[in-house]
Amino acid sequence: MSKVAVVYWSGSGNTEAMANAVAEGAKAAGAEVSVFEVSDFSAAKVEEFDTIAFGCPAMGDEVLEEEVFQPVFDECKENLNGKKIGLFGSYGWGDGEWMRNWEEDCKSAGAVLAHDSVIANDAPDDEAAAACKELGSSLAQ
User: Fold this and answer.
1) DSSP letter string over 88-120?
2) Which of 47, 53, 88, 111 is 20 to 30 Å from 104 at the Cα level?
3) Which domain holds residue 106?
């Protein structure tokens, strides 16, 4: 049984809803799943999990949340070389540039993207929720 961490930051609840759907998909695929708000996660925990899903909405000028999420993610990034991960988050404007930049940052760190990243415009609709569950399932395998 694989161990999956779902690590997220959410300001409005949209990314939290996505995190719950990712966790649901991983559990349905047989994984042992732990869900963390990013403030409860650290680089020291990365090695405890086979795969990790990171979730953060677009903020400001299409960037990751800078006060809480970005510092923790930057710390974790050093331990992601060869690690299978997934990315998800919501946005309210723009075209998803923050996610493309985040994917490139992860690839540069040597992380292996297990599934297409999932983005939702505002609250996740049925299609985005299904994509989150698929992401979770991919991480469980």
Assistant:
1) EEEESSSSSHHHHHHHHHHHHTT-EE-S--EEE
2) 47
3) 3-140
CA distances, 87 to each of 3, 16, 21 (Å) = 17, 13, 13
Q: What is the mean pLDDT of the chain?
A: 96
Where residue 108 sits, what CATH number does that domain have? Answer: 3.40.50.360
Q: Is 60 helix (H, G, I), strand (E, B) or coil?
A: coil
What is the pLDDT at residue 129?
97
Q: Which residues, at least 6 apart from 87, have a Cβ–Cβ distance to it below 8 Å?
A: 53, 54, 55, 99, 102, 103, 106, 113, 117, 118
Total domains in the fold of the chain: 1
Mean pLDDT of 31-46: 97
Amino acid present at 21: A
Q: What is the pLDDT of residues 80-111, one digit of tens each?
A: 999 999 999 999 888 899 999 999 999 999 99
CB distance 56 to 19 below 8 Å: no
